[in-house]
């Protein structure tokens, strides 16, 4: 059954009359998402060392936020993180609460990347930025306290897509070997026909309408290099870093996440899959809505810590 707190959230949202998403500009949707997150104070840990820095993107510097556990050793495992939001919305602040919890519970330093967003920067801008920022993290590991032998990539939704794609794009980089992939309800292709995408197309946060709006803004589907953003279509998944794929029971992306974990295992890659059956898409950022999310974050943090040794 759907978590009661999420049911109440969805019922409240359904009672608000909104114009069709297609009529709303990206700036307005972004502002609404930021305001929504700002109104959710879940009491995230404050006893961390957090600072904003700049990293190299594909077309210039990008804002980033570095989280470190208080009194952490000079060097720890590191996670380069990419927020969700369909490549169109989201920023460093929208995922701050979640990443504070993840950092505190795992003991892993986290570098959150503010990659460029569509439609101002369509495909492959976000993917190019993700690759450039992750390379930067390896090349500047000593400066940010990352152990270069224990660096992971991770992200939720669109960020999970970026992370899975990075696993493939960096597989043959001898100087920068990823140690782990944290794939949180990842999209593994721009368009897919799965039972969960059909059955959960309306009413559960990430609707078919929302996905179509995101896809139209990012423009990957019609791009000649679209396969680059679709790890599900990769011809060979062997040799990728170990992974954890997390899905939600009321998320249209759950089938493709589970299928990707299975495909990784079939290719000889150690990939765990955990599904939270009563949760919705984007749940890691919604601990202020449902306290049941906090144990899920702690469980994911424990898996991240174990995956990075």
Report on this model:
This protein is an alpha/beta fold and 309 residues long. It has one domain: 3-Layer(aba) Sandwich (Rossmann fold), CATH 3.40.50.1820. It is 36% helix and 21% strand. The chain has ten helices and eight strands. An eight-stranded mixed sheet has the order 1-2-4-3-5-6-7-8, sandwiched between helices. Strand 3, helix 3 and strand 4 form a beta-alpha-beta unit. Helix 3 packs across helix 10. The longest helix is centred in the middle third of the chain and has 15 residues. The radius of gyration is 18 Å and the shape is globular. The protein starts with a helix and ends with a helix. The mean pLDDT is 96.
Mean pLDDT: 96
Parts with pLDDT < 50 across at least 5 consecutive residues: none
Termini separation (Å)?
35 Å
Strand order of the largest sheet: 1-2-4-3-5-6-7-8
Rounded radius of gyration (Å): 18 Å
By CATH reckoning, the class would read Alpha Beta
Q: Percent of residues in helical segments? A: 25-40%
The CATH topology is given as: Rossmann fold
Structural class: alpha/beta
* Estimated share of beta-strand residues: 15-25%
Named at the architecture level, the CATH assignment is 3-Layer(aba) Sandwich
Following the backbone from N to C, one meets helices and strands in this order, namely HHEEEHEHHEHEHHEHEH
CATH level-four homologous superfamily name: Alpha/Beta hydrolase fold, catalytic domain
Structural domain tally: 1
Q: Globular, elongated, flat, extended or rod-shaped: what is the shape?
A: globular
* Main pleated-sheet profile: 8 strands, mixed
Discrete helix count: 10
Number of strands: 8
């Amino acid at each position: 059954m759907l978590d009661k707190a999420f049911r109440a959230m969805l019922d409240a949202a359904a009672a608000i009359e909104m114009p069709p998403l297609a009529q709303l500009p990206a700036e307005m949707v972004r502002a609404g998402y930021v305001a929504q997150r700002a109104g959710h104070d879940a009491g995230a840990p404050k006893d961390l060392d957090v600072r904003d820095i700049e990293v190299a993107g594909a077309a210039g510097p990008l804002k980033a936020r570095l989280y470190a556990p208080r009194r952490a050793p000079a060097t720890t495992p590191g996670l380069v993180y990419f927020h969700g939001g369909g490549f169109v919305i989201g920023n460093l602040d929208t995922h701050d609460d979640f990443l504070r919890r993840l950092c505190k519970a795992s003991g892993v330093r986290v570098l959150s990347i503010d990659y460029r967003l569509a439609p101002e920067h369509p495909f492959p801008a976000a993917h190019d930025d993700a690759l450039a920022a992750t390379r930067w993290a390896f090349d500047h590991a000593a400066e940010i306290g990352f152990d270069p032998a224990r660096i992971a990539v991770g992200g939720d939704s669109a960020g999970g897509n970026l992370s899975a794609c990075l696993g493939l794009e960096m597989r043959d980089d001898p100087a920068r070997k990823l140690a782990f992939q944290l794939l949180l309800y990842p999209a593994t292709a721009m368009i897919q026909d799965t039972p969960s995408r059909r059955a959960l197309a309306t009413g559960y946060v990430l609707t078919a309408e929302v996905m179509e709006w995101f896809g139209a803004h990012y423009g990957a589907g019609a791009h000649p290099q679209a396969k680059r953003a679709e790890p599900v279509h990769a011809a060979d998944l062997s040799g990728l870093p170990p992974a954890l794929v997390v899905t939600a029971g009321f998320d249209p992306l759950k089938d493709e996440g589970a299928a990707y974990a299975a495909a990784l295992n079939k290719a000889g890659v150690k990939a765990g899959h955990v599904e939270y059956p009563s949760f919705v898409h984007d749940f890691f950022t919604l601990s202020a809505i449902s306290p049941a999310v906090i144990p899920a974050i702690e469980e994911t943090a424990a898996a991240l810590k174990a995956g990075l040794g």
